[in-house]
Amino acid sequence: MALPSRLLAVFLMLAPLPASAQQVAFAGLRADTAAAVEVSADSLTVNQADGTAVFTGNVVISQGDMRLKAATVEVEYGADRTKIARLHAAGGVMLASATEAAEAREAVYEVTSGQLVMTGDVLMTQGENVMSGQKLAVDLKTGTGQMDGRVRTILQPGAN
Length: 160
Prior knowledge:
The chain has one helix spanning about 5-15, and strands spanning about 20-25, 35-40, 45, 50-65, 65-75, 85-95, 100-110, 115-125, 130-140, 145-150, 150-155. The protein is mainly β.
């Protein structure tokens, strides 16, 4: 007996993935990489010798519509020490836009290129759809990415 095409589509969406990586479109996880980066935290330690700063306690980083929250964030400045080159967030990391959110243990954000890599028990939500894995790499300029490491996806029929 043949399955109706809609039922077959739902079955295929819920079936386990044969590979451990999945390409994903993140329409809501886009950042204006030219926008200013604003950081707030309970404390800040600056090391002039190596060009780093460490924000600790309730760290919130904003760039355009994107928000990154974590327990600690290490900021690495570029060679001229005037622009942020890289952020390394650890401890309950959460990245959110108006329509999507992701959680992980750690995240590294290359500010200029817009590349974000989240690792450790990654959980991504897009509306009612949920995806989990061990590593999420997103190009915040294009909104494209890839989830790796025993990927599990739950797609709601009719959801975006």
